[in-house]
Amino acid sequence: MDLKIPETNTTQSSFRSNKTGDEPSLGDSEQRDSAKDEGAGEGAGEPGRFKRKMGNWVFESVGGFYMPTEDVTKLSLQRQEELLIRDLIYAFSGVPSSHIRPDLPIEQITKVRANQVEKVRFKINENFSSAFRTLATELLPLIGYYITVQSFIEDASMSTGCGRSLSLALQQTMQQYFDLQSGLETQLQEKKLDLHQLVQRLRPWLVTMQSLANLTSRVRSLKLNSAQMLTLIDEHQEHFKCERLKLLLTDVSHYYMKMVQLWTQKGVLYDVRREFFIEDTSPGDMSSTSLSPKQCCHSYWMNRYCIYMSRLPSFLEPEAECIFLAGKYLNVLRQCNVQMKLMQASLSFVPGNQSHVELIHSSYELPAHKLYEVLVQEQNLLQHLDNLQAYFLLQQLDFNEALMEYYGDQLECNVDDLRPEKLHKITLRLLQYSSDPFKHLLRSQLMDCDVTTQITRRMKRLKAGRQEEKETEAEAKAEQAKQTAQQEQPKQAELSDPMELTDQMELTEPEELVVQAEQPEAMKQLEEVKQPEQEKQKHLVHQPSAEFELSSEADDSSRMPEQLSLYGYEALSLRYEPQWPISLILHDEPLEQLQLMHRVLFYLHYVQRKLKSASSKSDRAEALHKRMLQCILHLEQHMTHDVIKPRWQALLDDVPKAQFVDELISLFQETLDSCQVMCLLSESVTFVRSLFTLGQLCLNFKQLLERQENEQDFDASLTEYEQEFNGLLIGILELLMELARPTSSCGNEERESCKQLLQRLEEISQELA
């Protein structure tokens, strides 16, 4: 629109405009004065991408500039209304008016920055009718809002990145505003517009322009990436409930949602600005033939992609895992040379619409289900799970009996005297007649520590991982708090501005944000298993060396003694080495849990086997022998029959019912966790140490039965063993009763497991009573 302003000699306060296109301009005199005021709008703390000025719109003292003016008191009410409508239309388009001025002293006008314009109040010449002024005052904030938004558009259009994206989207929104202003001017010229109609037409734009002005002011004052800016726009549209902000968010989010679409539907990361929340640490490994089977393992896929939650918009946070796994599984399938038809659906974000969520979930389900089929149907996952149950969890007693038979005297040797390659040859000879197609994946292994030390190391590793996650989360919260503080910082800085001396500025103090790091919850330790007081009997029980004592100082293998005080039956374990892609599920972490349970079960079965081979010399020795055998048998059967067998069978039944690979991973891990806590209890270090001490006492008692001693010495030793065994068993029973209490910190399943074991040991405990 072309606005022609009649010239009248007067000194006024005005706006300076430098808009492009068909928007109104103040003429050449404005350009003549621009040089001397080039730095008027600059302020401290502005982000580097807005280097031209703080904003293109500033207030200034014009001096001898000619402005239109009329003596309002001499005009009729109709003429006053027409004049006020004309000046309002000009002012709402950023053009200065002689009758609508900022309510600030002239000396403060030059100090107003662009991001403060929206807070400046305007007033109408008091000579206008009070009815007209009351009606029009409602719309006056549009002046500051418009100047703030338009100046951001002009400044950001010269920048790059997310600011430019917002500027382009704002231009489309503002075009509707310009069309409205042009229509209003046309109606005014045709005498078809009154003040009531003007207010009615512009009132809906008050909230829209306020929200846009508030948004652009905050974007100016912050250094945001695309995701953070999208989050900010989403917060504004939620707060203002503005439809045009929803459309704006859809437009600005187009680039980011395109990256989400490529990743979830193609497995491709296209992120030239490094603003996507997923980053590939091995961008050159996209080919299906680039990795060898040994390279392409679980640890590789765990570490290949980095996740930066600060680069994820808040409205996509609930779908973060689906987004991440969709692209990851597509790349896993690509490495498996699996052919499949990919999705090709346009993805966009529309506030209040869940269509993007449905598309993301569909994008995830396609590769997740395909990978499930590959693992279960092509890679025979159920057979692998059967093997783990048979080999590690003593569900195939024939194999374990044969294992102990084949190893023979090797189990009674010190671990330093054993050769792993010799033991492995024995294992291969045992398996040569097996029909298991995956028998070659089973290995024998000699551990460098006892079971309790291995448990302690694992607990420390898991604790360190959880602590690292907490620290990462705390850093994220601190970063978020910092950003929030930065958002409020410009408001705080304005307090020192001269214009703050007026009553018209509305500023809010920033709230102080305090991020408190979570303190790790101290583990609640139960009373240690009671040991007999007879110091002279300690030589009867094989004790671990000091380096294996479970204390807070038990550390890595660098503190291990040169001579390991471990026998073969304590150090021997099994290892399963599945190949890709089965190793995606059966990887080192869950296999270590199986190995821990196998070591305990193997030890109990070994002690039971040794006790069965012994013969008693008297009724009294026979009674103790029987109690020992029953105790070890009940402990083993509780783990194998009461705990492991039903849970593992439920796992095998549920695997064919699953739909996606994550269900497999979840089912497998939940079964392992449940079996471990039910067998070894939450106080696993205390309980397992008690079991091994009890088992070693039984082995020593078996040696006593085989030695040739006179009756008097035998009876004395028998008395010592009775006292030792009773003391150890009482300690175990007390631990179980403590964990079975309703007030204990353990879960319901663990309490029930402890009650089951107490029932199994009830007969022996009655004899002790």
Automatic annotation (TrEMBL):
It is found in: Cytoplasm, Cytoskeleton, Microtubule organizing center. One of its GO terms (cellular component) is microtubule. Keywords: Cytoplasm, Cytoskeleton, Microtubule. One of its GO terms (molecular function) is gamma-tubulin binding. GO terms for biological process: cytoplasmic microtubule organization; meiotic cell cycle; microtubule nucleation; mitotic cell cycle; spindle assembly. Coiled coil: none annotated. Pfam families: GCP_C_terminal (PF04130), GCP_N_terminal (PF17681). Residues 85-378 form the Gamma tubulin complex component protein N-terminal domain. Residues 381-761 form the Gamma tubulin complex component C-terminal domain. Its main location: cytoplasm. Residues 29-39, 465-480, 529-538 have a biased composition (Basic and acidic residues). Residues 1-49, 460-497, 529-559 are annotated as: Disordered. Gene3D superfamilies: Gamma-tubulin complex, C-terminal domain (1.20.120.1900). It comes from the Eukaryota. InterPro entries: GCP, GCP_C, GCP_C_sf, GCP_N. Residues 481-493 have a biased composition (Low complexity). Residues 7-18 have a biased composition (Polar residues). Belongs to the TUBGCP family. This is Gamma-tubulin complex component. It comes from Drosophila mojavensis.
